[in-house]
């Protein structure tokens, strides 16, 4: 099986070695992506703003892999605070108003200062 490591231009790459995504078997597997700008600064102080930034980042990563959010088939939303689910869900629905990907929402295990959300995604290539 051929696998391609995807690193999108303009999207922050944290150390150590890290892939934004892996393209294999007709799918793109996007790593957990937070709401960081290209310099590594966290964007947004609300879960709504952070979900939007994470999805903008994922959209750019999927574009670098030759696909888009329209081809998303599965996602995992990791929330630092489960009480943020209603706001995160509202923003998610703004991005996926019709035929959203399958998803699950779990509590984020690692605590990074002010990080409210990380999103993983699988999309058709």
Explain what you see.
With 125 residues, the chain is α+β, with helices and mostly antiparallel strands. Helix content is 23%, strand content 30%. It has 2 helices and 6 strands; from the N terminus they run βββαβαββ. It is globular. The mean pLDDT is 91.
Q: What descriptive keywords fit this protein?
A:
125 residues; alpha+beta; 60s Ribosomal Protein L30, Chain: A; six-stranded mixed sheet; 2 helices
- Biggest sheet record: 6 strands, mixed
Poorly predicted runs of 5 or more residues? none
Please provide the count of β strands. 6
Q: Roughly what percent helix?
A: 10-25%
Structure at a glance:
The chain is an alpha+beta fold and 125 residues long. It has helices spanning 47-64, 85-95; strands spanning 3-6, 21-24, 27-33, 72-79, 102-107, 117-124. β4, α2 (85-95) and β5 (102-107) form a beta-alpha-beta unit.
């Amino acid at each position: 099986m051929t696998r391609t490591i995807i690193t999108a231009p303009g999207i922050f790459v944290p150390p150590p070695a890290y892939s934004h995504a892996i393209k294999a078997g007709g799918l793109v597997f996007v790593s957990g992506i937070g709401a960081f700008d290209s310099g590594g600064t966290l964007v947004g102080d609300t879960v709504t703003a952070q979900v939007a930034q994470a999805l903008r980042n994922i959209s750019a990563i999927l574009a670098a892999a030759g696909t888009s959010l329209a081809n998303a088939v599965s996602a995992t939303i990791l929330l630092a605070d489960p009480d943020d689910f209603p706001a995160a869900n509202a923003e998610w629905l703004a991005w996926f108003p019709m035929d959203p990907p399958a998803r699950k929402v779990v509590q984020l295990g690692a605590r990074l200062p002010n990080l409210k959300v990380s999103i993983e995604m699988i999309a058709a290539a």
